[in-house]
Each structure stands twice: as C-alpha cells, then as structure tokens.
Amino acid sequence: QVQLVESGGGLVQAGGSLRLSCAASGGTFRQFAMGWFRQVPGKERDLVARISWSGGSTYYADSVKGRFTISRDNAKNTVSLQMNSLKPEDTAVYYCAADWRATRYWGQGTQVTVSS
User: Fold this and answer.
1) Please, which residues bridge with residue 92 across strands?
2) 44: Cβ contacts below 8 Å, ≥ 6 apart
3) Could you read off the pLDDT of 23-36 as tens digits, one per residue?
4) For residues 109 and 6, what is the distance between their CA atoms, to the nearest angstrom?
5) What are the residues facing 97 on neighbouring strands?
6) N or C: which end of the chain has fewer CB within 10 A?
7) Within 13 Å, how many C-alpha atoms sit on residue 115's CB side?
8) Measuring CA to CA, which residue among 35, 21, 22, 14 is closest to residue 84?
9) What gap in Å lies between CA 2 and CA 98, rounded to an integer?
10) Considering all CA atoms of the chain, what is the largest pairwise distance in Å, rounded to the nearest integer?
C-alpha cells in the first residue's frame, strides 16, 4: 500500500511563493509517476504538474507554466512543487498523486490560499 503525505501549504499574498512537498512510503517510489492536482469546491480535481519516474519528463498545465516547477528526489522518496508568482486563482486544495501498477494513490491534500 502506498501512502502519501503532503506538507507546505498555507496562506500567501499574491506574487509570493510556496513550496509543497509530498513524502511517499510503501511501494517502489522510483517506479512511480508523480503528479500534483488541485481542486476548488464544486469543481473537478485538475492536473497541475506531472513528472515521470526518472524525472526526465514533466508536464504542466497551461495556467501554471513558467511559474510552477515539479521535481523529485528518488533517494528521499519525495516530490515537490515550487510555486512562484502565485495568483488568487491558484487558491485550492493541492493533492499529491502517485501512479503505480495501474493504480492511482492520493494524499490527503493541503490547502493553499493566495490573498489579493
């Protein structure tokens, strides 16, 4: 069983930065494709960024390109999301996800609030 624990959310002013981290346990982390999603009340959970098992391939939603950076440390079983130039519309609950052996695992989520 894979467990994911996010940290690093909080309240920040527009233009500021936050760094989210996700620690994984169980399974074989270096085989996971990892992603960050976000969700606001009443809307679907959307993919923000994704990184391949090796870190060699990344994907970003258009809304965060150039502002967010996803990275991973396979030695520490962690994935991070560096968020810069934050905007009020980035306010959401952010979830870490791991794809492994045809199963997607989710963290519990961490709230990010960007004030204008």
Assistant:
1) 112
2) none
3) 999 989 999 999 99
4) 6
5) 35, 106
6) N
7) 4
8) 14
9) 8
10) 41
Cβ atoms of residues 67 and 89 within 8 Å? no
User: What pLDDT is stored for residue 96 in this prediction?
Assistant: 98
Q: Which residues face 94 on adjacent strands?
A: 38, 110
Burial string for 2-32 (b: 16+ CB within 10 Å, else e) reads: bebebebbeebeeeeebebbbbbeebebeeb
CB distance 33 to 43 below 8 Å: no
Inter-residue contact 47 to 61 (CB < 8 Å): yes
**pLDDT tens-place string over residues 59-105:** 999 999 999 999 999 999 999 999 999 999 999 999 999 999 999 99
Residues belonging to the chain: 116
